[in-house]
Every structure is written in C-alpha cells, then in structure tokens.
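Good morning N.,

You mentioned wanting to compare the apo and holo forms, so I went ahead and generated the holo version with flavin mononucleotide. This is what I fed in:
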Amino acid sequence: MSLLDIITTRRSVSVKDMCAPGPSPEQLQSLLQAAHRVPDHGKLGPWRFVIFTGDARADFSRKLADIYKEENPDAANKILQFQAELLTRAPLVIAVISTAAHHVKVPEWEQVLSAGAACQNILLAAHTMGFGAQWLTEWYGYNAKVHKLLGMEDHHRVAGFIYVGSYKEKPEERVRPSLEERVHHWNS
Ligand SMILES: Cc1cc2nc3c(=O)[nH]c(=O)nc-3n(C[C@H](O)[C@H](O)[C@H](O)COP(=O)(O)O)c2cc1C
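and this is what came out, ligand included:
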C-alpha cells in the first residue's frame, strides 16, 4: 500500500474490537518517533506522551474508577466496573498531552495543533504496522483530578488517549462529511 492509500483508507478500530497482541517495544518506539516527527513551529516540542502497557493499564483505570465514583456517588457497580477496566480495552494506550503555553513568537493555537498532529501520526503509524487505533478523550480526558494523576500542569490539555491493538474484523466504512461542500477554489 502506498502512503497515500494508507492515509485515505484509514479507519478507526473501536476499542470494543481490540485485542492482543499490541505493538512490541520496538514498534512502540517507532510509534513514538512518528508522533515526535510532526510540524512544530519554533522547535518547542509542545507535547508529552504517557505510555500505558501491561498492569499499568488496570492500575490507572482503577484510579479512574475511584475518581468517577467520587464524582458520581450513585453510579451502579456495573458502570464503576467498566471505568475500572477502561484502559485494559487495548494492549497499548498512549496519552498525548498538549503542553502549549504562551510564547512570544509561536501562537498557542499552533502548539495545540502540533499535538493534534502527533495524535494523527500515531494513528497512521499504527495503521501502517497493521494495528487498529482509536483516538479517544472520553470523560477522563477533561477531568482535573485525572490531569493531576498524569502529572499535568494547569495549562496542559489532554489531546487524546490513543488506543492501539490488534483486531479481527476490519471496520466498515462510515458515512463521511461531504468533501465537495468543504472545498472552495478561490477566484476572488
Ligand atoms: C480529539 C478527538 C477526540 C475524540 N474522542 C472520542 C471519544 O471520546 N469517543 C468517541 O467515540 N470518539 C471520539 N473521537 C472520534 C474517533 O476517534 C473516530 O475519529 C471516529 O469514531 C470516526 O472514525 P474514523 O476515524 O474512522 O473516521 C475523537 C476524535 C478526536 C479527533
């Protein structure tokens, strides 16, 4: 497959459909190199990556369930159990954190976009290796207590939790927004 084919045929694989094996340590390193190789105005490197593999996934997910319970004291056990297994849905999860901050030359917006590009590069690199991947934020991407757990500073934002794993069924194509409606050739 050409790179263009890979980009234009990529589909997210739902975490519900992921299974082991995940990327090897060498493949994980390649995914991180791809994430790191994004346009980055001013060479600020305004992103951080937190890796979850093995037992770390269940450990972090249990902490997510504790936070969820604090904030939703009436939540049913079944829902809490689901939270306690969130990151175990895939063999590898990479949290991409935007560390964008005010800078004299580089607008913060451009730094945030760079973190988004890092997420997309992970999706594409995973797709190239034959893995499925899904970019999620869910509730814990926006929760201040979770941000603290991740060691984030107040101005940091979660760009995404990128779930990566093997899958059995190729996802079906989905309806997409019309390209034509979104393209306009400028002619004054
Ligand atoms: C920043 C960002 C956050 C997302 N968060 C979620 C999410 O929390 N839950 C979800 O179901 N999809 C989420 N999505 C959408 C999926 O990752 C995916 O793009 C969507 O299911 C469409 O599939 P496709 O990538 O094959 O077009 C998010 C996408 C982006 C860009």
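The mean pLDDT is 97.

Happy to go through it together on a call whenever suits you.

Best,
F.
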